[in-house]
Write a structure and sequence with these properties.
It is a single chain. The protein is built from five helices and five strands. Strand 2 (13-22) and strand 3 (25-35) form a beta hairpin. It has 162 residues and is an alpha/beta fold.
Length: 162
């Protein structure tokens, strides 16, 4: 059994999703968003770090999965995203969690079946895979999709080592 925390980093909105994996069975434990309304980046990073730390304390995950930085159209956006990722990763590492990183295309491929899936498709498949009554908020759905991708990746590693 593993508890996996997935993070969809953002400097203003960081999605999180927590699932339990027992063999091939995935169970939803929780999800949501860390909202950082501050104007200055240091305060936003502090809130991301504190929020992720609180989620780790609450859910006690065994693994931490996060989306890799992709090349954004805007260099400033990419830098802010990288800083948000860093704050979340430091929170995980401070709690001795192993960190796994996944490209957005791989997450979409793993959950929807195509690396070009849009947010609505990801939300729908996360809802179906975790048997949720409603679609989660978009950033929370992305975070759950990252956790699901890690669960699938772990399952494939186990299968390939037999």
């Amino acid at each position: 059994m593993s508890i996996i925390l997935g993070i969809d980093p953002g400097s203003r909105l960081t999605g999180y999703g927590v699932i339990r994996q027992v063999g091939r069975q995935l169970t939803y434990l929780g999800s949501g968003c860390i909202r950082t309304s501050a104007d200055d980046m240091p305060t936003r990073l502090k809130r991301i770090y504190a929020g992720v730390s609180e989620i780790i304390l609450q859910f006690q995950p065994d693994m931490f999965a996060i989306e890799q930085v992709f090349m954004a159209k805007n260099a400033d956006s990419a830098l802010k995203l990288g800083q948000a990722r860093g704050a979340a990763i430091v929170a995980a590492v401070n709690c001795d969690l192993p960190v796994f990183e996944y490209a957005a295309r791989l997450v979409k491929q793993s959950v929807v079946g195509t690396g070009a899936a849009d947010k609505k498709q990801v939300q729908h498949m996360v809802k179906m895979l975790l048997k949720l009554p409603a679609s989660p908020q978009a950033d929370a759905a992305d975070a759950l999709a990252i956790a699901i991708t890690h669960a699938h990746n772990c399952q494939n590693l186990i299968k390939n080592h037999k």
